[in-house]
Amino acid sequence: MALACAALEAHGPGPLKRKWLPAALRGEKIGAWAFAEAGAGSDAGSVATRAVLDGGEYVIDGTKLFITNGPIADFFVVVASTATEQRLKGLSLFLVERDRPGFRMAGSMSKLGVRASEMSELVFERCRIPAENLIGREHRGFLDALRALTLGRIASAAFATGVARAAFEATLAYAGKRVQFGKPIGSFQAVRFGIADMATQIEAARLLCHRAAIAADRGLPHGREANMAKLYATEACTRIVERALHYHGAAGFVSESPIQRFYRDCKVFELGEGSSELQRDMIAREIGL
Ligand SMILES: Cc1cc2nc3c(=O)[nH]c(=O)nc-3n(C[C@H](O)[C@H](O)[C@H](O)COP(=O)(O)OP(=O)(O)OC[C@H]3O[C@@H](n4cnc5c(N)ncnc54)[C@H](O)[C@@H]3O)c2cc1C
After folding, report:
1. How far is the CA of 133 from the CAs of 2, 68, 267, 286, in angstroms?
2. What's the gap in Å between 207 CA and the centre of ligand 1?
3. For 210-220, b where at least 16 C-beta lie within 10 A, e where not — what string?
4. Ligand 1 and 34: CB distance under 6 A
């Protein structure tokens, strides 16, 4: 939803923005970001969904996979190739309304975590959309998508920091009240050190998030800042949640515990919107390697 709205807001034509953005911001319409495919996850240049201009319309063919909000969205920002041989330089963004003939949602997918949102496959079969539904310029879609994804990475970092913080706060409280060997477990050095590490990593993640968000808000370059915040915060979240579950013992493992939910949720932050390996690769490039 956020990626779809960010791309539309930054690069979409006026009529499309006026039609969809206010309603999306009011929560009356739902958007989805449709980039991933069976053969194109980290490797965006392998997008096989094609859009061909035919008169005043684009004709879209292809299948998208793992699309959050797929079963419920009213509109989709779809990444499709308008020049297949150009790979990244041949991608373009389109807005496709759910009721377009030739579009269908193919089956919801169940998942390990983040179950408050639904995910599905999307199929486009000779799906015709007006040429005015092009977002930004033809063949410039990758750069426009990257701008939205860079903002999305700051949001992912903040999301992960929030999950880590919730796990940390629950652990701090639990360590103070769970008594074993006649003492709260928080008085044992092994547990104290682990919780101190959690607190330190959360502060570091939070500062990296703030730095990236401030740079983005001020219109300053923020690619490297966003990548570092996303990489650090998401990996810290996984480490922190794992320790949180460990210090809760069986009480964290049972279905009633929020800790097991955090444990199932946290991994997605390291995968979506650029996996840790891609983040490291981009950071290495950004620091001159
Ligand atoms: C819950 C969830 C929601 C999602 N929602 C959406 C959505 O709304 N819209 C959307 O478009 N997509 C969505 N996705 C898909 C997501 O964007 C992809 O999962 C992500 O791009 C990674 O692609 P992949 O899963 O195909 O993994 P792959 O790209 O196949 O990667 C598999 C592994 O190989 C590693 N790898 C790949 N390339 C390299 C390399 N060059 N160097 C080193 N390691 C590498 C990766 O880091 C990873 O560990 C969602 C995924 C999940 C799990």
Report:
1. 18, 21, 34, 33
2. 26
3. bbbbebbeeee
4. yes
Query: Does residue 33 line the site of ligand 1, with CB under 6 A?
Result: yes
Q: How many residues are listed for the chain in this entry?
A: 289
- Tell me if 224 sits within 8 A of 232, measured CB to CB: no
pLDDT at 21: 98
Annotated catalytic residue: which of 57, 203, 273, 286?
Answer: 273
State the distance from the centre of ligand 1 to the C-alpha of 97, rounded, in angstroms.
Answer: 25
Nearest CA residue ID for atom 41, ligand 1: 278
What is the number of other CB atoms lying within 10 angstroms of the CB of residue 116? Answer: 7
Question: Nearest to residue 94, comparing CAs of 140, 48, 134, 149?
Answer: 134
pLDDT tens figures, 12-63: 999 999 999 999 999 999 999 999 999 999 999 999 999 999 999 999 999 9
* Catalytic residue check, 118: no
**CA 44 to ligand 1 centroid distance, Å:** 10
Query: Are the C-beta atoms of residues 17 and 8 closer than 8 Å to each other?
Result: yes
pTM for this prediction = 0.96
pLDDT in tens, 218-246: 999 999 999 999 999 999 999 999 999 99
